[in-house]
């Protein structure tokens, strides 16, 4: 009993050090830009680079648009499939897995062939068209995560019965979707959104092959040209991703009413009674 | 004049027919139960009334209006589900208000109506709670209030008590019946629990394999089951196979003993028919009344407190009978020969 606990603790520590030691080493290295002293000089230098902020905001905006696109595609599709066509669910599931199976480089080359300058729909000739291709690509990459997250949300929600309950009370489709389904899927949508964000924010392959001024290619560029700044950037993007995950957890566990700051019942864990 | 009419409704999924030729006329304010084993099509009929399923054949009308093809949100139906199905993102008050809001009622009307509804289910003090903060019984009462708030024409309940524990099940079913009577709302209640159906319904529809086997008051269903299925599903019943002696005179043989029935038999002499007898119809006490007697050997006798349940063998058949406990009556011993007296009118000839 005691021994097995010690063994599992050691295993956890080894596994954790596997992640934490390189992180710590990177962080320490990022503080050594000035010889013989600790400083945040590398960070100062990163923030002073105008390309840093421009690529960062470019990637933030494209990621947000990708979130919007994937949510707008996935939520109604999943709802409809669960409600009306449960038989095609395995097919949809398979399709959403494809971005994990097909390497991004294959997908993006496919896009370039399909929408290149000599195609029927030449998206690559304009900057706006290429931006569109990029966000569509990001939405594609995020599909497995967003779908699973939303689908799980609907699973626990029993959307079918909720839909029927609302229908029998006189509600039409849009009322049901906006007043009943979406509010209850908030946690699932938000966690899908954060996953999309963390995937597309530092994404390299799509952005680089489409030649977009995004954060991923910028990271790689800096990595080739400089010594200390890449370490600082790595720590910064780690912090950002981590913040995304924390926010995701907070949203995913939030219960309705908790945000209304009602003391007592809403906050009292004893008042929460689970019913089958 | 019936208020809710189902005429020759059938429902098939591909090649399998799950409801066939279902006919029912429900009067205004009547409380009807659909009773039957799992999978017999109760939910399917209910969902056709609600509009969630379209009948493959037949018609449904409410208040003389054909609603067979009307969308569920235009039928003015109140529905209560087994799984409560409250909206998790809304408080109790918001849940109850939902139907009224959708219908475009003004604020004051909504507030007043929500208050009335919460008073009806005695949950005024929980108006600001969320569903996850309540017990199953409380949630189901809220679901009832939510369904009733927009004043539906018909209230449908699909096994609303199945997920609750026994005690709450009994108290809530009485509450449902009381509220139904108070509002006078036409109600269809689905259950697989015969005691539930018998105790709260005006009439019961006993369903079997997608058909209505018998429609009648609880008293009729229990005492005059029309089919073998109804007889075996509702209450406990002795099924006794007998040989017809003289069909015109209504005499049959049970082992060597002759019994004269109150009716002429359609079968011919020598054929086997099945009779049914409720365990509570007879007595073995001295001086028990009854025009018919059967003598047999006691094979088991169980003391159940208020009731003594005894089984005796007559010819090939085992017959159980229940008698109330009384201090002056000792349960019969194993192997003892006893004579059970009952009225021949209590013997039912079953058709299949
Ligand atoms: N959508 C469906 N597709 C195919 N079969 C169904 C469907 N819904 C119900 N059934 C079948 O219809 C029969 C009756 O179901 P149901 O009305 O739910 O029974 P009950 O409510 O009496 O338990 C069952 O055998 C069930 O498998
Ligand atoms: Mg059912």
UniProtKB/TrEMBL annotation, chain A:
CDD domains (UniProt xref): TM_PBP2
Pfam families registered for this protein in UniProt: BPD_transp_1 (PF00528)
Database matches in SUPFAM superfamilies: MetI-like
Domain ABC transmembrane type-1: 52-251
Keywords (A to Z) from UniProt: Cell inner membrane, Cell membrane, Membrane, Transmembrane, Transmembrane helix, Transport
Bilayer topology: Multi-pass membrane protein
Compartment(s) where it occurs, according to its Swiss-Prot or TrEMBL record: Cell inner membrane; Cell membrane
UniProt record, GO biological process: transmembrane transport
Single GO cellular component term: plasma membrane
Ranges annotated as spanning the membrane: 7-27, 56-79, 91-112, 132-150, 187-210, 230-252
PROSITE patterns according to UniProt: ABC_TM1
Family that this chain belongs to: Belongs to the binding-protein-dependent transport system permease family.
Protein name: Spermidine/putrescine ABC transporter permease
Species, as recorded: Xaviernesmea oryzae
UniProtKB/TrEMBL annotation, chain B:
The keyword Nucleotide-binding is assigned to this record: yes
E.C. designation(s): 7.6.2.11
Record-level Gene Ontology MF annotations: ABC-type polyamine transporter activity; ATP binding; ATP hydrolysis activity
SMART domains in UniProt: AAA
Sorted UniProt keywords: ATP-binding, Cell membrane, Membrane, Nucleotide-binding, Translocase, Transport
Enzyme class per UniProt: translocase
GO CC annotation, single: ATP-binding cassette (ABC) transporter complex
Domain ABC transporter span(s) in chain numbering: 1-234
PROSITE patterns named among the record's database cross-references: ABC_TRANSPORTER_1, ABC_TRANSPORTER_2
The keyword Mitochondrion belongs to this UniProt entry's keyword annotation: no
Any GO BP annotation: quaternary ammonium group transport
Domain of life of the source: Bacteria
InterPro entries recorded: AAA+_ATPase, ABC_SmlMolc_Importer, ABC_transporter-like_ATP-bd, ABC_transporter-like_CS, Mo/tungstate-bd_C_term_dom, P-loop_NTPase, PotA-like, Transp-assoc_OB_typ2
Catalytic reaction annotation: ATP + H2O + polyamine-[polyamine-binding protein]Side 1 = ADP + phosphate + polyamineSide 2 + [polyamine-binding protein]Side 1
Function description: Part of the ABC transporter complex PotABCD involved in spermidine/putrescine import. Responsible for energy coupling to the transport system.
Subunit structure: The complex is composed of two ATP-binding proteins (PotA), two transmembrane proteins (PotB and PotC) and a solute-binding protein (PotD).
Family: Belongs to the ABC transporter superfamily. Spermidine/putrescine importer (TC 3.A.1.11.1) family.
Identification of the protein by name: Spermidine/putrescine import ATP-binding protein PotA
Species this chain originates from: Xaviernesmea oryzae
């Amino acid at each position: 009993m005691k021994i097995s606990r010690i063994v599992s603790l050691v295993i956890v520590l080894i596994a954790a050090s596997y992640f934490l030691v390189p992180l710590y080493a990177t962080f320490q290295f990022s503080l050594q830009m000035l010889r013989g002293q600790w400083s945040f000089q590398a960070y100062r230098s990163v923030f002073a680079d105008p390309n840093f902020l421009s690529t960062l905001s470019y990637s933030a905006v494209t990621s947000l648009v990708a979130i919007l696109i994937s949510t707008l595609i996935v939520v109604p599709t999943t709802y409809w499939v669960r409600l009306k066509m449960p038989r095609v669910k395995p097919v949809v599931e398979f399709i959403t897995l494809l971005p994990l199976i097909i390497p991004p480089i294959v997908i993006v080359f496919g896009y370039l062939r399909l929408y290149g300058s000599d195609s029927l729909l030449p998206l690559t000739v304009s900057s706006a068209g290429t931006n569109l291709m990029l966000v569509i690509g990001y939405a594609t990459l995020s599909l497995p995560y967003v779908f699973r997250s939303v689908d799980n949300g609907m699973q626990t929600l029993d959307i079918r019965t909720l839909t029927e309950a609302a229908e029998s009370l006189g509600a039409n489709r849009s009322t049901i979707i906006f007043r009943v389904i979406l509010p209850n899927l908030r946690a699932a949508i938000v966690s899908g959104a954060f996953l999309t964000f963390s995937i597309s924010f530092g994404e390299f392959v799509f952005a680089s092959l489409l030649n977009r001024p995004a954060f991923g290619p910028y990271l790689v560029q800096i990595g080739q040209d400089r010594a200390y700044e890449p370490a600082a950037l790595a720590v910064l993007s780690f912090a950002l991703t981590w913040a995304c995950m924390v926010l995701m957890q907070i949203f995913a566990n939030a219960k309705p009413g908790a945000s209304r700051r009602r003391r007592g019942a809403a906050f009292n864990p004893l008042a929460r009674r689970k019913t089958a | 004049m019936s208020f809710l009419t189902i005429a020759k409704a059938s429902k098939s999924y591909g090649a399998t027919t799950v409801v066939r030729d279902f006919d029912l006329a429900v009067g205004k304010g009547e409380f009807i139960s659909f009773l039957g084993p799992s999978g017999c099509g109760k939910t399917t009929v209910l969902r056709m009334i609600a509009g969630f399923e379209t009948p493959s054949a037949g018609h449904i009308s409410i208040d003389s209006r054909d609603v067979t093809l009307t969308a569920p949100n235009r039928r003015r139906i109140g529905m209560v589900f087994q799984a409560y199905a409250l909206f998790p993102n809304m408080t109790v008050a918001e849940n109850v208000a939902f139907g009224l809001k959708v219908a475009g009622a003004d604020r004051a009307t909504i507030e007043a109506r929500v208050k009335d509804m919460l008073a009806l289910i005695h949950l005024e003090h929980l108006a600001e709670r969320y569903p996850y903060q309540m017990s199953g019984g409380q949630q189901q009462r809220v679901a009832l209030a939510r369904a009733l708030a927009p004043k539906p024409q018909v209230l449908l309940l699909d096994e609303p008590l199945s997920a609750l524990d026994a005690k709450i099940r009994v108290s809530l079913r009485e509450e449902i019946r009381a509220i139904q009577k108070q509002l006078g709302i036409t109600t269809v209640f689905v259950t697989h629990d015969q005691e539930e159906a018998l105790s709260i319904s005006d009439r019961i529809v006993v369903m079997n394999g997608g058909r209505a086997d018998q429609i009648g008051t609880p008293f009729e269903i229990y005492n005059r089951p029309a089919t073998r299925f109804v007889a075996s599903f509702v209450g406990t019943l002795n099924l006794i196979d007998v040989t017809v002696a003289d069909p015109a005179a209504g005499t049959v043989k049970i082992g060597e003993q002759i019994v004269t029935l109150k009716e002429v038999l359609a079968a011919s002499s020598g054929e086997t028919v099945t009779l049914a007898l409720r365990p509570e119809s007879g007595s073995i006490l001295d001086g028990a009344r009854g025009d018919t007697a059967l003598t047999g050997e006691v094979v088991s006798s169980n003391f159940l407190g208020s009731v003594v349940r005894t089984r005796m063998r007559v010819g090939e058949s085992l017959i159980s009978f229940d008698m109330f406990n009384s201090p002056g009556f000792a349960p019969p011993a194993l192997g003892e020969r006893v004579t059970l007296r009952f009225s021949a009118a209590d013997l039912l000839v079953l058709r299949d």
